[in-house]
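Per-residue structure
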Amino acid sequence: MNTTATSDTDLVERIIRGDPDAETQLYRQFERPVRLMLTQRSGNAEIAWDLLHEVFIVLLKRMRERELDDPAKLAGFVFNTARFVWLGYVRKEARRNTHPASESIEQFIDEQQAAHDEAIERSQRRQAVEDLLNELPQQRDRDVLRRTYLYGQEKEVICQHLALDAAHFDRVIHRARQRFRKLVETREVFER
């Protein structure tokens, strides 16, 4: 088990025990990437802030109820929870904004279909990136790139989890990006 999985497992166990410092750590670790995801989806920073707080309320409740089977998959659990909160918000808004004019309903359906298609495309691209990351031979390269670009974690958080100082992190991420770039160049995954 790597140090990241160990620290995530420890964090989850501390949250289950009711440790408020662990809850704060969880928030600091995931606040920014979750907020960015919600802002991107909603197009509205105020809505994203409101939903962000709901995400962390749901997260803590689900974690205390032991719904997270594998604490090493904490990041995926966080982002899946955020997606469910976002979908709940969209459904609630759709019910609130539905009115009998067929043109509005058709427009709403078209908008939802476009959003769904875009989400599928984003998901496919993300999966292609994940697949390529998994081909990198060094675990640290995979961790630093995943945490930086897929999870949007701050440099300080990544340094803490990977036991790196800031200068060493800069060298590690530079080399990891170079290796990943070479890997991408050998694939046609991102070509349309």
Residues 178 and 184 are 10 Å apart (CA to CA). The longest helix spans residues 102-135.
